[in-house]
Every structure is written in structure tokens, then in C-alpha cells.
Amino acid sequence: MSQEMTFWEHLDEFRKVLFKSAIVVIVLMAGIFAAKDFVFDTIVLGPSDSNFILYEAINRVLGMLRLPGLEPFKINLINIELSAQFFIHISTSFYLALVVATPYLLYQLWTFVKPALYENEKKAVEKAFGFASILFFVGILTGYYLIFPLTFRFLGTYQVSQEVANQISLQSYMSMFIWMILIMGIVFEMPALAAILSRMGILSKSFLKKYRRHAFIFLIIVAAFITPSSDPFTLMSVGLPLYMLYELSILVCRDFNK
Questions:
Q1: 173 vs 220, which has greater pLDDT?
Q2: H-run or E-run covering 66
Q3: Where is 7: in which H helix or E strand?
Q4: Which residues, 6+ apart, have CB-to-CB distance to 178 below 8 Å?
Q5: Which of 19, 45, 107, 137 lies at a 20 to 30 A Cα distance from 55?
Q6: Alpha-carbon distance 219 to 45, whole Å?
Q7: Element (H, E) at 40
Q8: Range 214-227 burial, b when 16+ CB lie within 10 A, else e
């Protein structure tokens, strides 16, 4: 692909990128769909049981501090729609395939835009794509191992009265699971976006430093939007990682005003 290519030639190249990406996602989706027992019993439904790694780690820390551990819990999900389990199986396989395929999708996007860049731009954007891939997976893991389990345990065990039992549907669980994990992967792209904007001369280190206090309040509001739980512990468990990402954004930005 070169600068002399016509619009339709560019469109054809982009179609090839989309086709290759779709093939990879479909293949991964089929593999994940076939591994249903492992994907759901071990990964997706892991946070609904007291044996989940985060809960065990918290109990070990509390034990070292000679404090009582977390109460054992096991939430059994219910299904109230005839076709819900089948379609949730399909949609979950698709979302997980997208997550696993993210490095390849970014690579395909990079091959499409690379020929249109100058040599100095290629190096900067290539680093940004690699940085974005790493941050995305860090965000996914943070959402899965920290944010979602804390939120789910709080909301799943909260009762206004002992007379009102919680019966959580599979659809409700999966909606929160997919939303919170994917949104954490997306918001963790903040430093990568800041680095790109900085190298474009749009965002500077001094600007981010100047509005650090405002950013903290804004990020707490974003954290409240991400998690439906209103307890301070869960709110700060989301807000603090977001603020740490803001500080990381300051480090990766250039101060072109100097």
C-alpha cells in the first residue's frame, strides 16, 4: 500500500485486514465455544465461589493480621429464559475471542496504517500499539481478578432483610461480568492514548500536572459509573487504579512547551 493508491485500492486493503481479523476471531470463538466446561466452570463462574483466588488471598492476609476471614459463600445462578443459556454461550465465546485476538487485531491495524507514516512516525506508533496491547490485558486481568469479584461479592450477598433471598439470574451475572472486565481493558488504554496525543503535540506533561486534582475527582466519578456498588471500598478499588493510570500518563507524555 502506498500513497499513490486510489480510494478503492485502500478500501480493498482494509477489506483484507477485516477478513483476516474476522477469520482469527471466528476460529478462536469456535475453540472457546468447544471448551465450554473449562471456560464457564473455571473462568467465568470462578468469582461466584469462595475458592476464587482473590478471596483466598484476602483470607490469608486477614489471617496474618489475626483478623476473622471472609464468610464462605456460594451463589448459585438461575436461568429464567428458555434460550438464554445457549445465546449466552455464543456471546461469551465471541467476547472472549475478541480479547484473546486483541494483539493480532492491533497488528493487522498497524499493517494497514504503517505505509502511510513517515519513518519517525512509524517507530512512535509501533511502540504505542505494543504499549496499548499490554495495557489492555493488564486492564482485563485487573477487572477479572479484582474489580468484578469485589463488586459481585458485595452485591450478591447484600440483603435489605433476611426475609428477602437473592436469586441472581445468569443473564444479570454475565452482563456485569462482560461489562466490567471489558471496560477495565478499555480504560487502561489511557496512558497509550496520552502518549499518542503527546507525540502529536496535542497533550503535554505540564497540562496533565496542572489539572491533576480535577482529574482525581473526574476519575472517581468514572469509577462510580463503572461499578454499580456504592460502598467506599469497591469505589476506591476502581478509582485508585484509574488515578495510577493518570500518573502513568504523565510519565509517558512529553512537555513540548519547554
A1: 173
A2: none
A3: helix 7-34
A4: 91, 92, 95
A5: 137
A6: 29
A7: none
A8: ebeeebbeebeebb
Closest to 183 (Cα-Cα) out of 215, 135, 138, 140: 140
The tens digit of pLDDT for each residue in 13-68 reads 888 889 999 999 999 999 999 999 999 999 999 999 889 999 999 999 999 989 88
pLDDT at 231: 65
Residue 91 has pLDDT above 60, yes or no: yes
Q: What is the pLDDT of residues 18-30, one digit of tens each?
A: 999 999 999 999 9
Query: First and final CA of the chain: distance in angstroms?
Result: 37
DSSP string, 72-129: P-BPPPB--STTHHHHHHHHHHHHHHHHHHHHHHHHHHHHHHGGGS-HHHHHHHHHHH
Check: CB of residue 250 under 8 Å from CB of residue 197. no
Return the residue matching grid coordinates 475458592.
51
